[in-house]
């Protein structure tokens, strides 16, 4: 059919992709054409993270982010900012003093406020939603022992949302995390959302990253998590979806990781997916999209973490140098058959 993902999901939810640097600079011409044609929302894969936006204190670098936002505006996209406060891809100066020691709570607050205010104000009214805090809660429901948590305690989260709200009162503000179907995480994230709301601090959505494999999570646990977050009166964003076709190394012992056998086991499909795996992978995408459609009243956006397989971070995570097939467009920028099947579901 002539339908695209963008046209098929038009009255349901935004359908988005992460953009890599070559895409933002429009040097990967063919995959940029895919983005323009197929997607209604974009997020930058890396260039809006703190280590890129403020590599040194007060030395902001906005060139790439400016290009990204301009691209989104030109193509009438729902532009997402990722991410303001995260323990990873965070420059060390952010939480240390000149001697390399942790700064005080007061100084860390000032630095958070300055970073958030500067970045959010720059794109006020243009970036429509921000991942304000990323990955702060562990699967067991405890808080991640990040520098933000160690220095400021749980309060760093409400503070970040407060600063973002002040800088752009109309932007949507989100909490974003991975493995968000674990019951401990569901409980603590829900509690955090309720706490923000009861204090009049804006939060519009919970982002479920959705870096998944063929087997985990079950659709049932994922569906329960959607319902649980929505029950707190926020939208659910599916923010970083891809389905890896490769075996997961979690739980395999580290001391075998450099053997030839281990490499072969972890990277079995260098010449393409066997038919049975391809079918399982397609069905898994279709199952997820059926679920998203069923809950379209709760879902604001579904974003894929990249456009083509060549670009995917999954080729290097959690094991380096693999050939994975997680996205909707292949290594030659061709549309996979699953795209038409997803469109047919609508
Ligand atoms: C990843 C990018 O895809 C990689 O290019 C980069 O090297 C590391 O970060 N959770 C997130 C994303 O919130 O920002 C991460 O993106 C993937 C996991």
Unreliable runs: none
Using DSSP, what is the number of strands?
A: 9
Strand residues, percent = 5-15%
CATH class: Alpha Beta
Count of separate structural domains? 1
Structural descriptors:
9 strands; 13 helices; TIM Barrel; binds (3S,4R)-3-hydroxy-2-oxopiperidin-4-yl beta-D-xylopyranoside; alpha/beta; 346 residues; eight-stranded parallel β-barrel
Topology (SSEs and partners):
Elements (H helix, E strand, L loop, with lengths): L4 H4 L5 E6 L1 H4 L4 H10 L2 E4 L5 H4 L9 H12 L3 E8 L19 H18 L6 E6 L12 H6 L3 H12 L4 E6 L5 H16 L6 E4 L2 E2 L6 H12 L4 E9 L16 H7 L8 H20 L4 E6 L32 H9 L1
Helix pairs in contact: 6-8, 12-13
Describe this structure in words.
By secondary structure, the protein is an alpha/beta fold. It has one domain: Glycosidases (TIM Barrel). The protein has 13 helices and 9 strands. The protein has helices at 5-8, 21-24, 29-38, 50-53, 63-74, 105-122, 147-152, 156-167, 183-198, 219-230, 260-266, 275-294, 337-345, and strands at 14-19, 41-44, 78-85, 129-134, 172-177, 205-208, 211-212, 235-243, 299-304. Strands 1-2-3-4-5-6-8-9 form an 8-stranded parallel beta barrel, surrounded by 5 helices. Helix 6 (105-122) packs parallel to helix 8 and helix 12 (275-294) runs parallel beside helix 13 (337-345). The longest helix is centred in the last third of the chain and has 20 residues, at 275-294. The model has no long low-confidence stretch (mean pLDDT 96). Bound molecules: (3S,4R)-3-hydroxy-2-oxopiperidin-4-yl beta-D-xylopyranoside. (3S,4R)-3-hydroxy-2-oxopiperidin-4-yl beta-D-xylopyranoside (XIL) binds at residues 45-46, 134, 209, 240, 313. (3S,4R)-3-hydroxy-2-oxopiperidin-4-yl beta-D-xylopyranoside binds next to loops. This is Beta-xylanase. It comes from Chryseobacterium geocarposphaerae. Its EC number is 3.2.1.8. GO terms for molecular function: endo-1,4-beta-xylanase activity.
